[in-house]
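Figure 2 data, in text form.
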Amino acid sequence: MAESGRQPPSDSLEETPPTTHNFMIPKKEINTVPDMGKWKRSQAYADYIGFILTLNEGVKGKKLTCEYKVSEEAENLVATVVPSHLAAAVPEVALYLKESVGNPTRIDYGTGHEAAFAAFLCCLCKIGVLRVDDQMAIVFKVFNRYLEVMRKLQKTYRMEPAGSQGVWGLDDFQFLPFIWGSSQLIEHPYLEPRHFVDEKAVNENHKDYMFLECILFITEMKTGPFAEHSNQLWNISAVPSWSKVNQGLIRMYKAECLEKFPVIQHFKFGSLLPIQPVTSS
């Protein structure tokens, strides 16, 4: 797990669309496996992975309980969701939020739904409601609250994992909090990857670190030896540093989520996250 996984965030993330921007309801574009090539070359892919990596850098070495600045635009989000002058963007942005809470027919949930919520946050940045400067607030306040809601739904309705690889997958439901959570722990003075399989270390530190909160949730939901029900995570606990864990998880996320047809076939594309090929500046 030694790939850097770093790439600069897309410059388009903080560009507020002009008032004449033609918003559109995002639609399905990935219908066959060969269509995956369009996705990997698309502006949507570049902006999405750029957003994920920007947030990854922003939370490095920070606790969930640390102080962080929240821009005025983010406060407006809480009060009014989207400012009136951006009303035309609401249907496009809202679709990603609707897609982020699982399938109402199958009662399932997985990393594709999680990606829809990250896409929702990315779109809010693209229209200027959130700022990339708000990266800690985006992860620690908004995304973490989303995790709390989804965990409550998972416990209440026993939602089926969507596309789970079972014992060979990282987790039944989430992936991003492991990436951002491992970034939080980079250069921690005493917590090492081997400690996340230590019940005492998890119980004492989970409120500060997203990765450990994920581990706690897994142990609450599953029974039996950790090495058996979460073999991938057990193997990761042997990695010598959090930076290597983080780099490896980014590589795994691209390979196991963003490059898998069963996950991406459900992703929707609009004017903010378009299917058109990325344009070089």
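Caption note: The chain has one domain: 31-267.
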